[in-house]
Write a structure and sequence with these properties.
Helix content: 25-40%
Shape: globular
Largest sheet: 6 strands, mixed
CATH topology of the largest domain: Creatine Amidinohydrolase
Distance between the termini: 37 Å
GO molecular function: aminopeptidase activity
Protein name: Aminopeptidase P family protein
InterPro entries: Creatin/AminoP/Spt16_N, Creatinase/aminopeptidase-like, Pept_M24, Pept_M24_MAP, Peptidase_M24B
Order of helices and strands: HHEHEEHEHEHEHHHEEEEHHEEEEEEE
Keywords: Aminopeptidase, Hydrolase, Protease
CATH architecture of the largest domain: Alpha-Beta Complex
């Protein structure tokens, strides 16, 4: 009997079909566009299905050009082999610069791709010319104003417009394939946090816990993106790296964790105490948890994002934190860990099926500590689907 296929293997087989569906959705959200051009690495992945590891090394020039039925990836020559593994069709990979990768006679390779360009800009122009866009309507999604002006000058008979709003509209709700990736990213993060609960004891270091979380995420098929493990007074330090600090009895341990699976993000948080919590810790956490749970209960189509925020704030203030303040109590999640729309006081957005949210009620007090609880949910036709289920108990000794 052959080896069974993992969930991640199955998802990888559907990368191209998901990218095709994303392009269809984008152009449905932007009927006034014939072509879209983007240099945003997240949107390059959205349109092509390919996400370069080189983006993790710092700013890296890439672009994608797409219609409903065609896509071109513009990338560095060294990246073209990895792109070909994902995209399979060499004719859609436009490379710039010089890099040498050979191929046997039976393998598609660099020789089957369009001729390389000297630089990023010239290659975008060459690829865009192949779309025969004269007289067309082209959305341009880039923050590089100099690049945008240079492209306009090369195509004086093209009606360019800002392409960013089209991505915002299309990405506000998720396709079934995107939801599958978000479920898996949330699942492995949830399991990683569940796995380390027995480690929360005196003498263990923040780095020990962080290392185990990272390993569990990788084993589950994810890429760790932020792993915040802070303890004691350090738990008040927002988004800080773990240190070699040893946990002590009475410490708060605040963990805010996220990973990606094929570009799609998870983001969740838990707080535990080392030993029994103090009365103040327990009372404050109870207020925060009540606020977060009230938000979850209110997640449904037609709810107003600003109302969800108000529910969270009012509920927490009825507990042990009467002066509780937050600029937001949650956010959309997808290809970014923080996406539109926010759960914020002026967020006049009605929730829709297919939107995905992280809801949270953090509290930070320098000199005392910090605590939070954060969960992820999909808005469904008649309510919500909660994706994160690991314990929300403050004291790990009570976790069964």
């Amino acid at each position: 009997m052959g080896k069974s296929m993992s969930f991640v293997d199955t998802l990888e087989q559907h990368t191209l079909s998901l990218a095709f569906s994303c392009r269809q959705k984008l152009f449905s959200a932007a009927p006034g566009l014939d072509v879209i051009v983007t240099t945003d690495p997240v949107h390059v992945g959205y349109l092509t299905g390919y996400r370069s590891i080189l983006q993790d090394a710092g700013p890296y020039a890439q672009a994608a050009i797409a219609t409903r039925d065609r896509v071109a990836l513009i990338t560095g020559a060294s990246d073209a082999a990895a792109a070909l593994e994902e995209l399979e069709d060499p004719s859609c990979i436009w490379r710039y610069g010089i890099f040498y990768v050979g191929a046997t006679a039976r393998m598609a390779g660099y020789a089957d791709m369009p001729a390389p360009g000297d630089n990023f800009f010239d290659t975008i122009v060459s690829a865009l010319r192949s779309f025969e866009i004269r007289g067309g309507r082209v959305g341009l999604d880039t923050r590089d104003e100099k690049l945008a002006r240079s492209i306009w000058q090369q195509f004086p008979h093209v009606a360019f417009q800002n392409g960013a709003p089209s991505f915002k509209r299309a990405r506000a709700t998720k396709l079934p394939g995107e939801l599958a990736l978000l479920r898996h990213a949330s699942h492995i993060t949830d399991k990683a946090l569940e796995f380390i609960v027995p480690m929360i004891r005196a003498g263990v270091t923040e780095l020990d816990i962080s290392s185990e979380i990272n390993g569990a995420i990788v084993q589950g098929g994810g890429i760790p993106r932020f792993v915040v493990v802070t303890s004691g007074e350090r738990s008040s330090r927002v988004d800080a790296y773990a240190r070699a600090k040893r946990l002590e009895n009475g410490d708060l341990v605040r963990m805010d964790i996220g990973c990606t699976v094929q570009g799609y993000c998870s983001d969740m948080a838990r707080t535990l105490t080392v030993g029994d919590p103090s009365d103040q810790q327990a009372e404050r956490y109870a207020a925060l948890l009540a606020g977060e749970q009230a938000q979850i209960a209110a997640l449904r189509p037609g709810a107003l994002a600003s109302d969800i925020y108000k529910i969270a704030i009012d509920t927490v203030r009825h507990g042990a934190l009467p002066d509780y303040q937050r600029s937001h109590c949650g956010h959309g999640i997808g290809l970014h860990s923080h996406e539109f729309p926010p759960i914020a006081p002026n967020s006049n957005v009605l929730l829709e099926p297919g939107m995905v949210f992280c809801v949270e009620t953090p509290y930070y007090e320098l000199g005392w500590g910090g605590m939070m609880v954060e969960d992820t949910a999909i808005i469904t036709d008649d309510g919500h689907e909660l994706l994160t289920h690991s314990t929300r108990e403050l004291c790990q000794d009570r976790v069964k």
